[in-house]
Design a protein that fits this description.
The protein contains three helices and 29 strands. By secondary structure, it is mostly beta strands. It has two domains: 2-387, Glycosyl hydrolase domain, family 43 (Tachylectin-2, Chain A); 390-471, Sandwich (Immunoglobulin-like), CATH 2.60.40.1220. The longest helix is centred in the C-terminal third of the chain and has 6 residues, at 383-388.
Length: 477
């Protein structure tokens, strides 16, 4: 939540009209699904506020959520929760999965706005990759010659690895350990700067970067990231009055070294809901299109008196050239007195249970006691099924032989898929294979015991088909 201090992090929710296809989004009636924790246990104080969700598929038809959490606005860390239905969540209140760094480090003040990837082909210790915004005082990250030019905090984007999605270790480049800022961990997208410059950065596009949204393209083995940059509107920066947010895009082959930023979405025109502020992108691939949900505001600072953040949608065929849908915003805050009436922002979209869900943060109560919570709205039609892959959902996908013994074959008549997961009746993952997109794949099942299994077939992390499989005549212990 880069805006927590510079733009105040509000939250987003509501019921919405999806313009380009005239579809309706509907708020889940029992929102919020995760709310502010009321506790007298000091060990749980760190997890009172909940905001900035990132939701991923987890196990057999379950979801895991990562979110920013803190003690009423103090030192945000990243917490997690799991759900079997996306409505009822079990939070991990023992400790944060990613915490702030030690004194003097680049992420000492806050770690927040997680973006999470699961890469089955990675080594076990790095299968989960959690990107996050980390912050430190501007006078610590930069020299002090430009006092007042920058926001109170400088944000950069970091990375943490995990084998189980719960216990994370921050990425660290030991060659930078002589610098106290980067002694314990390193940002993977940082602020380049030269001493004494105005602004004190090499690239006018940003003096802070934050709020990452990640995607891994299995067909090209390329990491893709969308994030916000705070910088000047042109290379001849005239100071803080010339600063604004933009949504940027970069690529990487290793998830650590990223290409130079490319602006992909800018603020709107005068009178638009995003005329002064654009932030918090979340990109999801639906069929051949990239859908970017993002926050917008008519006030550049998000000042308390102007809780006007809303949610927009932009669509692209290449992930770089985005076009805003004509009926933006697609989401606004709720009516007075509801849990999200103070603001609507920080979307996280996911295809789940045959529809498109968008989890988000929502603010409630007075401006002196605003509490962020997390809820979701969903697409009230089956359009998302067709969009997520028209061909695969209409295509005949077969698994044979079934029953099976040592080998199965999965075949799609005309479409492609790139991952197969096999789980047992208890939902325990037994086999997972990731490969270059194909319409035919062979899996060795000789390690499986006799019984019933679910074979899940994926295309670009979207579960497009579940098939039952019976293993027979296998040797048992």
């Amino acid at each position: 939540m880069y805006q927590k201090r510079v733009v105040l992090i509000l939250s987003f929710c509501l019921f919405v009209l999806f313009n380009s296809t005239a579809q309706t989004y509907v708020k889940y009636p029992n929102n919020p699904v995760i709310d502010t924790l009321s506790t007298t246990n000091p060990n749980e104080f760190w997890t009172r506020w909940k905001t900035d969700p990132c939701v991923i598929h987890w196990g057999n038809d379950s979801l895991r959520m990562y979110y920013g959490t803190n003690n009423y606005g103090v030192q945000t860390q990243i917490g997690t929760a799991v759900s079997l239905d996306g409505n009822n969540w079990i939070e991990n209140r023992d400790s944060a999965v990613v915490s702030t760094g030690p004194a003097g480090s680049w992420d000492e003040l806050d770690v927040e706005t997680p973006g999470v990837l699961y890469i089955p082909s990675n080594p076990d210790s790095t299968k989960y990759m959690l990107y996050y915004s980390g912050s430190q005082h501007d006078s610590t990250v930069l020299d002090t010659s430009n006092t007042g030019l920058y926001p109170i905090e400088i944000y950069q984007i970091g990375l943490a690895y995990s084998r189980d999605g719960i216990n994370f270790i921050k990425y660290n480049d030991p060659t930078n350990d002589t610098n106290i800022l980067y002694q314990n961990s390193d940002p993977v997208i940082r602020i380049p700067y030269t001493t004494g410059g105005i602004p004190d950065t090499i690239n006018y596009l940003f003096s802070s970067v934050a709020e990452p949204s990640l995607m891994f393209d299995t067909s090209t083995s390329t990491f893709k990231i969308w994030y916000i940059g705070l910088g000047c509107s042109n290379p001849s920066c005239i100071g803080i009055l010339d600063f604004r947010y933009r949504i940027l895009y970069s690529e990487s082959i290793d998830g650590i070294n990223w290409s130079a930023p490319t602006p992909v979405l800018d603020i709107g025109n005068s009178g638009d809901f995003d005329s002064a502020l654009i932030y918090a992108p979340h990109v999801i691939k639906i069929g051949a299109e990239y859908w970017m949900f993002y926050g917008g505001n008519t006030y550049s600072s998000g000042t308390f008196a102007f809780f006007s953040q809303k949610i927009g949608l932009a669509i692209s065929t290449d992930g770089v050239n985005f076009t805003k849908v004509p009926d933006n915003p697609i989401a606004t805050n709720g009516i007075n007195g509801t849990w999200d009436h103070l603001g609507a922002n920080y979307p996280s979209a996911i295809l789940y249970k045959d529809t498109l869900r968008v989890y988000y943060s929502g603010m409630q109560d007075s401006i002196f006691n605003f509490n962020p919570n997390i809820g979701y709205f969903y697409l009230d039609s089956s359009l998302s099924i067709g969009y997520r892959n028209n061909a695969l959902n209409s295509d005949k996908i077969t698994l044979f032989p079934n029953p099976s013994r040592n080998t199965i074959f999965v075949k799609a008549n005309s479409s492609v898929f790139d991952r197969i997961r096999i789980v047992d009746q208890a939902g325990k993952l037994k086999i997972e294979k990731v490969f270059i997109p194909t319409n035919f794949y062979q899996v060795n099942t000789s390690s499986l015991k006799n019984g019933l299994y679910i074979v899940s077939i994926y295309d670009e992390d979207v579960n497009i088909r579940d098939l039952k499989m019976i293993i027979t005549e296998q040797k048992t212990d």
